[in-house]
Amino acid sequence: MSEITRPSKAELTAFMHTEFPQCPIDIESLAHHQCVVRRSIGVQQLRPGGTVSGPVLMEVADAAMYVTILSEIGLVALAVTTNLNINFLRKPSANSDVIAQCRLIKLGKRLVVGEVTLFSDGDEDPVAHVTATYSIPPR
Amino acid sequence: MSEITRPSKAELTAFMHTEFPQCPIDIESLAHHQCVVRRSIGVQQLRPGGTVSGPVLMEVADAAMYVTILSEIGLVALAVTTNLNINFLRKPSANSDVIAQCRLIKLGKRLVVGEVTLFSDGDEDPVAHVTATYSIPPR
Amino acid sequence: MSEITRPSKAELTAFMHTEFPQCPIDIESLAHHQCVVRRSIGVQQLRPGGTVSGPVLMEVADAAMYVTILSEIGLVALAVTTNLNINFLRKPSANSDVIAQCRLIKLGKRLVVGEVTLFSDGDEDPVAHVTATYSIPPR
Amino acid sequence: MSEITRPSKAELTAFMHTEFPQCPIDIESLAHHQCVVRRSIGVQQLRPGGTVSGPVLMEVADAAMYVTILSEIGLVALAVTTNLNINFLRKPSANSDVIAQCRLIKLGKRLVVGEVTLFSDGDEDPVAHVTATYSIPPR
After folding, report:
1. Is C104 in contact with C33 (CB distance < 8 Å)?
2. In a 3-state reduction of DSSP, which class is residue B69?
3. Looking at the complex, does the CB of residue D133 fall below 8 Å from at least one CB of chain B?
4. Reduced 3-state DSSP string for A51-94
5. Angle in degrees, 0-180, between the axes of helices C54-73 and D54-73, rounded to the nearest 10
6. Any CB–CB contact under 8 A between C91 and chain B?
7. Is B103 in contact with B129 (CB distance < 8 Å)?
8. What is the pTM of this model?
9. Could you give the CA distance from residue C80 to residue D76 in angstroms, rounded to a whole number?
10. Percentage above 90 pLDDT, chain C
11. Which end of chain C is more exposed for a tag (fewer CB within 10 A), N or C?
12. Complex confidence, ipTM
């Protein structure tokens, strides 16, 4: 039985930039079953009316979940999102980065369930809340 | 009490190209509480491994819902997504357009609920299924 | 490799009455990846105000999904609900049975995704819409 | 403009016993946008195999959300559940009460979003996680 090699923050960052080039994120912190990621917002991420588009929020949440899972199971495994449920709560600021706080609720052998709370950087009220499930294929 | 002016397919298309410039869609058909939209897929919409990224599927579903709602309530109203739940079912083809079939389940005064089934063009098995809720502000 | 023995409607009905004694349902029809079940409503299923309680609707949807899955994979397998998402659409009638129409969207080896539309018997507008995921354990 | 009268724990308990007689709960604690409720489990709440049934978990989560909302907006308002999303995480114990910890994520004028984490009393790993949306009718 092989040990899982936990990737470092630098390894995870490099992996994510290759895997999700359209959604460049910075990993702010990593902890047991948790992580915080930051996504800078430019004109490409905005909708008319001056707000971050919904799909960008979903993309950041998905990336934050992926980072948190990979930090637990290693970079080799291939996890795929099977379900994502998002509640949009407030209009995000057009001038702030998006911050995603992720926490795994269950890390099973086959299914991982987590939640992600999304903020506009500097505001304490969340702009969206996500729960998502990833399926981990058999080794 | 004012009548709602239903927008034409051309008006809706123009509106969507302005409102969602990052997600250019073609409206294939419009019917009572239903529509079908098409999204062409290029390199920007793919992930390593050769598949359409999840956020692109969510974006197309969201746009399909928006088109269907606006075709019922008119272009003036401002509807916002409050909840979106997506189940990813199969790996989408990297070489096919994404087709989204939307159907409104409830068109209330304050909340609209609909479902969207997403396909890779030419395949009959869906790649994802979405239910979403939009909130319609008071006039 | 053993063949799956599809249970008959009578076998499924008997199984459900044992497995879900608190939610006695009648199987109205069974077809490929689909079924319709009926749940009679008594005082125990109502809330003050004269409407069917939300948990009863969820229970009927869950039972309808279970019946549809078991009719495909056989009575031996043990499927468990992993996710259920319900949108409540209209107030159900206190005097009508609840009818649940279930359709499987994906029948995978590990995960099954389906949708259930719930009606008050005799009304054509649905009272609720459910999507649910079941996990099927390895044989 | 009238002040909202916050109900006491005793008033909320009495209200819930009338409103949800099929799901008798005890309110363990109430705080700003939060509450903890307890539901005792008997034979009626179990499924064959010795586990608490899924619909009972959904019922307790729904009741916990309702208590938390009413403690903020008062007993007069009529809130209805519009969406409930539940992830089942682990098999609940047949011999333990169910504990539900609820937290409101957004308390808007029209929509309230909250999350509920469900436990078997004495275990620290949750058995299920719920996000739910309530609609509050115009006054």
Report:
1. yes
2. helix
3. yes
4. EECHHHHHHHHHHHHHHHHHHHHCCCCCCEEEEEEEEECCCCCC
5. 150
6. no
7. no
8. 0.95
9. 39
10. 75
11. N
12. 0.93
